[in-house]
Amino acid sequence: xxxxxxxxxxxxxxxxxxxxxxxxxxxxxxxxxxxxxxxxxxxxxxxxxxxxxxxxxxxxxxxxxxxxxxxxxxxxxxxxxxxxxxxxxxxxxxxxxxxxxxxxxxxxxxxxxxxxxxxxxxxxxxxxxxxxxxxxxxxxxxxxxxxxxxxxxxxxxx
Length: 158
What we know:
This protein has 4 helices and 9 strands, in the order H-E-E-E-E-H-E-H-E-E-E-E-H. The protein is an alpha+beta fold.
């Protein structure tokens, strides 16, 4: 294990499902994401270029970003299956949210963000988002973290 791999192995941060409206809804589990500005509010999600969702997101004007409940159900579907061969949305409860972006009903918190910019670095592309519609609970809720999903075999490995 390299020095940086050992450093990264110590990290534990939330995981998200990013959704996008396209010819058909698309979505994937994302481990690289976070707030990147306070004023104005900005958030960046990094999508693997090998991922089925990447193509739909590359053409999208908005993306949905969902925090996940602590169980594995949504993470297994959106991280363990590929949209190349599976209809992930047939396996979960969801509805069309703002601007028809797919919203996962079990997500304890989510936002829809307008794509302001894209940056291609390495094997992922960063999507800079301006949060335009936000849904949060009235009190704190537990969310799924990276270490809790490390056992999921990627549906579309890089």
